[in-house]
UniProtKB/TrEMBL annotation:
The keyword Oxidoreductase does not apply. Coiled coil: none annotated. CDD domains: Sialidase_non-viral. InterPro entries: WD40/YVTN_repeat-like_dom_sf. The lineage of its organism: Eukaryota, Sar, Alveolata, Dinophyceae, Suessiales. This is Photosynthesis system II assembly factor Ycf48/Hcf136-like domain-containing protein. It comes from the Eukaryota. Keywords: Signal. Residues 1-15 form the signal peptide.
Amino acid sequence: MSPILLLSLAATTSAAWVEDTFFTNNAPSWRKFAMTTDGSTIVGAGHMSAWVSTDNGASWVKRMIDGKWEGVGISADGSKMVMGGIEINMFKSDGGGNFQTGWNDAQLSSATSQKLRDLAMSSDGNIIVSAGDTSDVDAQTWTQGSFRSTDFGATWNQISTTPMTGIAMSANGNVIAAVTPTSNAGVLVSTDGGTTWATNTPSESTTLTAIAMSSDGSIMAATGYGNNGGIWTSTDTGSTWTH
């Protein structure tokens, strides 16, 4: 079980990490986090539970039942949220506040099942993209790659068949970046909402596991492990990377 560390930016130029003590001795195995533009609302997805804070992490409310929650996304204003995971349903909510109400299925078509690894949401909450792979499960019953919805999870279209373990999206939904477990595959980047993709490999000896980006998609950060593991950054929409 891992603690939550919150970065506090002071009015001076100093910054410090502090542990969120709410979960001391009682934390799920955290997988992914997402937050609103102002940082006041934070949602955390973990194996066995998912939580929401609306006071910058001072207190938290459990919002989803037990399950292997892997991905979560929230709109810029905190009015919409989507959450999903491994071998469990994908859910969405427009209940606002602590998301006490408004939970509904945000499922792919009945003919498609995905081992979901990550989610990303546009700033208005209408566009959602998923990342999935088929490792550790029966590949005959799961669909890998990425799916995209432009109507808050009502309908979905597949935009990639490459296995993915992490995904990020710009505020307007045009720029999408994903990392894949495929050997030396690196980072997949689309600048047209998933219609076309380009591949860039920061390092042949690094396996990337997660990715994030700025609101316009120009700045990206990816984490990984291997001989050149750690953090990689890009300031040109994923074209080149610095360790």
